[in-house]
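User: Teach me something about this protein's shape.
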Amino acid sequence: MNQLNSPNGIDVDSNGTLYIADQYNHRIQKWLPGASSGTTTAGITGSSGSSLNQLNKPQSVVVDSIGNMYIYDGDNRRVLQWPEGASQGIVVAGNGVAGTSLNSIDYAYDSKVDSSGNIYVPDFNNGRVLKWTPPSSSGILVAGQISSSGSNADQLNQPSHVIFDSAGNIYVCDYGNHRIQRWLNGSSMGSTIIGTGTPGLGSNQLNHPYGIAFDLFNNLYVADSDNGRIQRFNLTHA
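Assistant: First, the predicted structure itself:
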């Protein structure tokens, strides 16, 4: 239980407990502060599958304030809500089949949950971000187009990760367009706040941005993957 196999996503709860999407072991590992090994808190070690007690290459995990885990279950193309201590999850987004309909996810590397329990999924292959409000079986489009990738202001190209602020604005790692897009709450268009749309090493450029995170001071950190660096941007006046 002290080993991992291609971990892909992590989250830390308010107690400092670390949750890890242990991709090729098809499980979520929970590591208490100071522990030298983890415990399996979702999935079955080494056993992939589509049953509700199984995972198949989980890509991300986030934990809410009451201990529910939300897992993007990669090759099962679904998001599972996994209550603390439960032996299986509940499907809250996706239907398990790749597609372009609003109840489908083609593929994703991330999912996020806001304080109201809404689930956001950057649908990488479909160039869009969908929002699910449980118990709805379909999502609604909140960024990008239904199934048309591109570089226009109303389009995305391989969105990899998403976060949001307290006003409900959405920030998207637009991986294939080498930029970060901000979509104001309810808007049908995004605006480029970081990047030029062209890959490069300049301080205002990105090359396949993969992950984003805010700190408490409104700084946005970007994992600028193909440049091998982390960039920090202050958005106070963006």
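Now, about its shape. Residues 99-237 form a domain with the Neuraminidase fold (CATH 2.120.10.30). The longest strand covers residues 7-12. If you'd like, I can walk through any region in more detail.
User: That's plenty for now, thanks!
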